[in-house]
Write the structure tokens for this entry.
Amino acid sequence: MENKKEYVISNQILRSRTSVGVNVREAQVAKSTKDFIAKLSIASKENRETNYWLRFLDKNGYLSDYPNQKTLFDQSESIIILLTTIIKSTKGKIINQKLYKRCLKHTLYVYVLLSVLILSVLSGQSIQELQKLKAEYETIRSGQAQLQLPTEVDVTTGLPRKVQLTPYRFEDDIEMEGEGLKHFGYDFFTERDTVPFWENLPTPANYQLGPGDELVISLWGETQLRETYTINREGKIYDLKVGLLNLGGKNVKMARSYLRDQFGRIYATLKGKPPTTFIDVSLGELRSINVNFVGEVQYPGVYPVHPFSTVITGLIQAGGVDTTGTLRTIQVKRNGKIVSKVDLYDYLLKGNFPHNIQLRDQDIVVIPVRGSTIEVDSAVVNQGIYEGIEGETVFDLIQYAGGLIPEAADKIGLSRIKPMGERDPEGIYEGHYINIENAKLIPIQNGDRIAVHRLFKENQLVEIIGQVKVPGVYFYYNGMTLKALLDLGGGFEDSTFWKSVYHDQAEIIRRNPESRYENVIKVNLADIYNDNGEKDIPLQNLDRVVIHANLNYFEKDNIYISGEVNIPGAYPLISDDETLESVIGRAGDLTGKALKNGISIYRDIIHSEVTSVQSEVLLNVKDRKVRVAWKNESISLMPGDSIVVKEIPGTVNISGQVYNPGLIEFRKGKRLKYYIDGAGGVTEKGNQKSIVVIYANGVVSPNKWYSTPKIEDGATIIVNEKPPSEPFDPTEFANTTLSLLSSLVTILVLSKQII
């Protein structure tokens, strides 16, 4: 590769192969299995990239002189296979310490094989390039070693140990260093050379024909003719019938009149009264003109440009002006004299196209060094670096920057370099603050820095929240009152909406500069609206007003009752403590088939705290409702409750660890044992000490050794399973016993020695 001068792809191979070695090294000291796999995955990807570039070089003949191509590719493939095997084995198994160390050991083999391959592939690289890459790597490593967590930050939480207070600084609003400011106007010329816009330029009226221009002469009417001519070096064209025609120095308009006269000598119908033949002259292919661009341009030299080019389009074709060059006094020299001076600011800022600046062959466009560098920063529309000329003022430069923005302060800062004779050890800059009117009187100087302060961003706001039509944040003004803010929030003229508002108390939350907590001012809204504003309260900036809702006015959720009642349906609560008995009475009482103690009450889950760990069987959590257990009909209901009155089933349900779970006929007076025996008794896994009875009304009663729950119609009996227990291990029992005996013997021997 060195003989063939190929360094681009070989540099890419060096970087990717070096990355493989670095990642394998880092994998050897990985802090976790996840980090270990990540590092080796990156190494595998980089190795595959190296393999791709090696194949590319081999296919294009760059490795034809390499003696061991097969060994080179075999080594690269071996590294890929080895890395892939390590990654898969690490991912596919539960990593223990032994396997982890074994994988780290494999990475050593990868590193050795990798070192051999790097030396063989990079034999075409120069020593200077390798030393440069090594220096870059050492710089990165040293930079990482210097990274330290600040001492004021807690390592475990990442949060600061101390409260960090940063006071407001007015200087933060002004970037006096000018960092990031762009030179105005120079980007106009960039990235334009690929756009052939000059092909669409119209023919200027004063364009002078010259050698190389192509003319298309057309005759139509009584005589039909169309011929194309190219002007020779003497400025002439030749026609077989008309003869030699001199067009040098003529523009298109003059050439059209001249050619009509000359062709009229042969074609008389051109000069008839009226003429019956007409002539038209147009331009075809045009010659390029050679223009010299010198001075502070990006790429000075002689450029062939379009003959219609002006100073602006010519500079675009030549690559533009360097930031050290002027945009205010561009010179066009012709025949040793300055024929035009162009100020591009007039064009860039006002759209006034410069006149008489069409370029001609052998013109010289001179870009002098910029006359001044003025920084205009902060509260202007277009911050940047501008150029001023003699006679312009600070105000003019601000206008070039688009003028002041609305947030601009009244004072304009001006930093100026002192004249050489007035400089002292205290500094070379002098600062001034002027107003916008005085800025019209102060001429600019080279090196001036103009900075306009921004006004402090004040928050003149108040907020209203709660039961208002249009809650939100509103602008505050001096003299603003609570009633004015309420009117902005929609007001309370609507009598229906007024009823939905809690009148007796609203709150004004006001900041207190002497306390960390806010003051709360309680307000009676009825007084504000009923006393013609006499008790209105003036607001302060940043006040927050809270309007509470009248909960009594809002519609409550209905109670739904279904099942064995005479009038099932939805019923609104008529009091805060209305009971189950009251609602059943309003529903026409129970039917004859109703199970009186089997009424189920379901309540919205938002009214209770139910976790997923709790049994859904016991709580009947469904459709976002939870079952309520009750013992008497005096239980108070809540909005949204659902009541289901069951029909008398005449059975008892038994489930769990019994031989024949299912329904058993209810027999009044029969005890718990009767129903368990009827289900075949408790299985071997059943726990006779853990039997639960759930009544139809949701009440749960466990079976205790001193009390057996009474069985009622519709009840459910659940026999729970015994808790799992570990089997008896005689070997473990013997070891434990021997250990205890050994400890006792040791204690006895030690006690005798002490005595």
